[in-house]
Amino acid sequence: MSDKVDITLTINGAPHAISVAPRKTLVDAIRDDCGRTGTHIGCEHGVCGACTVIIDGETVRSCLMFAVQADGCEIRTVEGLATSDKLHPLQASFIKHHALQCGFCTPGFLMLAAGAIERNPDMSDDELIEVLSSNLCRCTGYENIVKAVRAAMLEMQAA
Amino acid sequence: MKPAPFIYHRPKTVEDAVALLAEVAPLDGRILAGGQSLIPMMALRLAYPAHLVDINGVAGIDRIVVEDGELVIGALARHARFEKPVEPGPTGQLLAQVCHNIAHFPIRSRGTFCGSLANADPASEWCLVAATLGAKLVARSEAGTRILAPRDFFQGIMTTGLAPEEMLVEVRLPMLPSDAKFGFYEFSRRAGDFALASSLTAFRVENGVIAAPLVGVGGAEAHPRRIPEAEHALLGQQATMATFERAAQAAAIAIDPLEDAATNAGYRRDLVRTVVRRALELAISQSERPQ
Ligand SMILES: Cc1cc2nc3c(=O)[nH]c(=O)nc-3n(C[C@H](O)[C@H](O)[C@H](O)COP(=O)(O)OP(=O)(O)OC[C@H]3O[C@@H](n4cnc5c(N)ncnc54)[C@H](O)[C@@H]3O)c2cc1C
Ligand code: FES
Ligand code: FES
């Protein structure tokens, strides 16, 4: 069974029937086999958070799961945040508050924040900082990311 | 890096998991629980098991229930479940406080309590809890079930008393009495990092003096354990800063410190003195706050 296994990854509602070796991590399968390259790979060992996605409602590191483990699960990635004509409030807020420069870490931060806000739509500043401390950004710095997420959270509460 | 190839198994019951483990353990097979330690180790090629027995599809092993005065924690109970108290007493509150020090939110949504114990990192917060509260660690194999005490379970750095073909099916934590005071303090260099030293303490105050003291230290030695010298310094004494300082000093002297390039033995002892004292102070200051 170290041979390839047939699985279906449902990404943002779309099923992808693929065949993967068990050792393939979920993030590699999302990018290489399903062609959804919005999810990034940084460290491949759980430290940077670039690969953060939401699986069956849980915010997880997709480099710390094997693709075979996500067979049949609902996976949400950054490509699923915007609707056809409208950015997600988090995305709009990242632009407004200058929360990205190179953008490498951004998909991970967006999914981290989206998952955290869904779990607790009313995080205190301390809770927000605790959540955001999980991911690394090498160029923007964290102040603007915290500002952007806080503003989006307030906007989502009002909506 | 990419993990090395392995053969993947996904049992649906504990019986099947244990049967598979019996078969593949001699061939370098292991359990895959939350994967939050094992997969990084595989990605770094520090581990390359030939078989993985993934227990994430096993039904009914994620329970967290109170039974006979013990908190029963199943093999698939993930860290995040403890972020809010799992029961209203001091044990639930203690676990919630400790939980926020374990890694980060996305890692806590997958990693498991039992996986942390099986992994036995010297700095693991759950290992400190299990050692301090005197957990019963329930190990199952095809040969049957046995219950290990922390002193038999924790044997060294990432080394436990589990046999390769044994699965840790659950942990039973004795619950603290409702009037217990507890304090947890850890020092790490960055939020979410492993602790350089940590301490968990619990005691009651009876007729103005300390009764049933527990003092555990983690991150400083090869595995977390209770420090009898510190507990002795507390027993029957008034809960004053002077008493706490004596207990902290006793702990600093009693430990056999881990050393690395950035952390020499003297520094580790200083840290232990500080974390034990702060844990004890928190035990008093938290209990004065209205709940
Ligand atoms: C960035 C990062 C930061 C972290 N920070 C911390 C931290 O501050 N504190 C901390 O304690 N941990 C930390 N961790 C580790 C995390 O808590 C892991 O979840 C935990 O150590 C292992 O649990 P798991 O369920 O993920 O086990 P796995 O990774 O699946 O397994 C770990 C080991 O235990 C064995 N195993 C697992 N379950 C069982 C079982 N039921 N029976 C027998 N053997 C079993 C496996 O075979 C493997 O050898 C961190 C991890 C990351 C990636
Ligand atoms: S690539 Fe997954 S955490 Fe860095
Ligand atoms: S924007 Fe460049 S790493 Fe964060």
List the helices and strands and how they pair.
The complex is a heterodimer of chains A (159) and B (291).
Chain A (H helix, E strand, L loop, with lengths): L4 E7 L2 E7 L5 H8 L18 E4 L2 E4 L12 E3 L12 H8 L9 H14 L5 H8 L10 H16 L1
Parallel strand pairs in A: 1-5
Antiparallel strand pairs in A: 1-2, 3-4, 3-5
Chain B lengths: L6 E3 L4 H11 L4 E4 L5 H6 L7 E4 L9 E4 L2 E5 L15 H10 L5 H4 L4 H7 L5 H9 L2 E6 L2 E5 L1 H4 E3 L2 E2 L6 E8 L6 E7 L9 E10 L2 E10 L6 E2 L1 H7 L6 H14 L10 H24 L3
Parallel strand pairs in B: 1-3, 2-3
Antiparallel strand pairs in B: 4-5, 5-10, 6-7, 6-10, 8-9, 11-12, 12-13, 13-14
Helix pairs in contact in B: 5-6, 8-9, 9-10
The complex binds flavin-adenine dinucleotide and FE2/S2 (inorganic) cluster (2 copies).
The site of flavin-adenine dinucleotide has 29 residues of chain B, from strand 2, helix 2, helix 5 and strand 10.
Describe what this molecule looks like in 3D.
The complex is a heterodimer of chains A (159) and B (291). Chain A has 159 residues and is an alpha+beta fold. Chain A is built from five helices and five strands, in the order E-E-H-E-E-E-H-H-H-H. Chain A has helices at 26-33, 89-96, 106-119, 125-132, 143-158; strands spanning 5-11, 14-20, 52-55, 58-61, 74-76. With 291 residues, chain B is α+β, with helices and mostly antiparallel strands. In chain B, the strands form four sheets. A five-stranded antiparallel β-sheet of chain B has the order 4-5-10-6-7. A four-stranded antiparallel β-sheet of chain B has the order 11-12-13-14, sandwiched between helices. In chain B, helix 2 (38-43) links the parallel strand 2 (29-32) and strand 3. At the A-B interface, strand 4 and helix 3 of A face strand 1, helix 2 and helix 4 of B. The structure holds flavin-adenine dinucleotide and FE2/S2 (inorganic) cluster (FES) (2 copies). Residues 30-38, 40, 75, 102-103, 107, 111-112, 114-116, 118-119, 121, 124-125, 162, 167-168, 192, 194 of chain B line the site of flavin-adenine dinucleotide.
